[in-house]
Structures are given as C-alpha cells and as structure tokens.
Amino acid sequence: MRKLPALITVATVAVLALTGCSGSPSSTPTASAAAALTCTDPGTSSNAVTVAGDAGVEPTVTFTAPLTATATERTVITKGDGDAVNTGDAVEIAYTAYNATSGTKLNAGGYGAEAGLTVTVAETGSVIPGILKGIACSTIGSRVAVVVPPVDAFGTTGNTDLNVSATDNIIFVIDVKGKVPTRASGADQAPQDGFPTVALADDGAPTITIPKADAPTELKTEVLKKGDGATVADGATVTVQYAGVVWATGKVFDQSWGKGGPATFATANVVPGFAQGLIGQTVGSQVVIVIPPALGYGSTGNETAGISGTDTLVFVVDILATA
Q1: pTM of the prediction?
Q2: In terms of CB atoms within 10 Å, which end of the chain has fewer, N or C?
Q3: Looking at per-residue confidence, does 140 or 261 come out higher?
Q4: Topology (CATH level 3) of domain 187-322
Q5: CATH 3.10.50.40 domain range(s) in the chain
Q6: So which residues are the signal peptide here (predicted)?
Q7: Residue-averaged pLDDT of the chain
Q8: Is cis: bond before 66, omega within 30 of 0?
C-alpha cells in the first residue's frame, strides 16, 4: 500500500496529536477551519496542455516545454456529471505530473484498480496548494489540467528528490474520482466493558466519556462500527476523522471534527499506539483506541498538546479511506 508521495505533500505534514514530534507543527487540524478556496480559472499555459485517453486510464499528456504561469491555472479537460467539490470535502483522485520546465514526467498513480489518493480540500490540507486549487470547484468525474507555479508548489526551495528547481512549474492532470464519506458507516457493534463511552452528534462528531477507573496499562482497541471496506495495512496512508482525549481529564486535545475536514496521513508517521490500533481495521469502521504512555509520547509527553509523560490517550477514529 502506498503513502502519499513526496510529489504532492507539503514539506511538513504534522498532526499535533498523532505525530511523534513534540514541537508545535506549522499546520495542524487544530487550527481554525480554513476559509473556502476560490475556483481557479484557466490560462494560456493550462490551455496549452493536451490530454488524451479514457477516464480511469493514465492519460497521454503533451505540451511544449517550458510552460510557466504566474498564478495557478486550471483547465477542465472533461467535465464530470457528479457533484461539485467544495471546501472540506475529501475526494479520491488519480493524477499524472510533469516538470513543466524540462518536460520530464515526475509521477502518476490512482488509475484503474489502483487505490486513488485521498485529498481533503482545505487550506490547511496536507498537499501542495496547487493540487487543492485544481480540485476545488471541479465536479466528480472531471479531468483537469493544472499548471502550478513555485508559489503553489515547493516554494523557493524546490524539491531536489524530484529534480524540481525553485523556478520550475509543475503540470498536474487530475481525475476527480469520487468523494470520500465524512463519517464511519459500518454496522453498529456492541460496546465492550471498561472502555470509554461514545455519543455521536448529528454530524458524527463524538463526545467521549471516560469511566471512573484506572487507565489500562496495555494498548486496547474496540470496534463500535464495523465497515466492510479495504483493510488498513502496515505503512498505509489513511483518511480519518478523529478525536483524542486524555484519560485522566477527559479533555479533548486534538480532533479533526469541525477543523476543515478529514485528515490524511501515513500510519508510519503517527505515534505507535495509534498506528497499531488502525492496522488490520477496515474502511467504514469506527474504533476506540486506548494508548498507554509508552506507545504514545513516552515519558516526555507532549507539552504543546497538554499531554504529560504519564498520560494515557483515548482516540475515537472513523476510518474513511486507505491507500
């Protein structure tokens, strides 16, 4: 199973409650909800990209390099007949990417039976802004060509791993495959004794109540809704809604609910207990994960999140997609 490629991810993807980093990240779902992204217009450069091929198959892309744009440009190659993509939506995409300066193909993925990449359309999202601007205001089933200048890609540093310089534009041809649900839809399961109780709001956001008991000393998981989707593999990328509380206080220290939409990240990039609680679960499920300190932040805790070195953590996680 693939992680989000370095090609489309921002330089720092850090979720405050989940990553092993104790410092404050530059962009997290705990920030206020993002302002709505505006629709991106076509331009001379995006109109110069020729795309051929059927939906669901990697396209043939032709253009005369170099192509440059002062702002991101988006041309609709094929308009889908599905719903419009709005801010806060999580969508599955396939894409092909080129260096618009050199003409070199950079990467492609998500076509045919291959799982697409899930992207949440929000200014605090985990992908470069040019991708978000290409997806926003598209309709499901659309194919778009996007020309992205450095300001909406890798900025003044470029990306040495991809041989993208600080002045190179990038071309993305994106297929908008479908929307990802915003909450777990699996079959209800009987709660287990000893676990926190979970009450759901109308939109699916959980309220977590801690029992009057000592916290478990080992990792514990409970399935509240059992989905019938794909199984989360070790090292996979997942898209989830989540809320996390400290067992000792019941206080929420991080959540995706109400913060711009679901979060997408690799299980390799989160605290060990969170990853262990997700691996083997299925898409559509809602799980409760109780994480002892040793599988969370260890003896140092996470001061930024208000987590001490002895705190047990509780997460309620809706698993929406995996790739």
Answers
A1: 0.76
A2: N
A3: 140
A4: Chitinase A; domain 3 (3.10.50)
A5: 44-179, 187-322
A6: 1-27
A7: 86
A8: yes
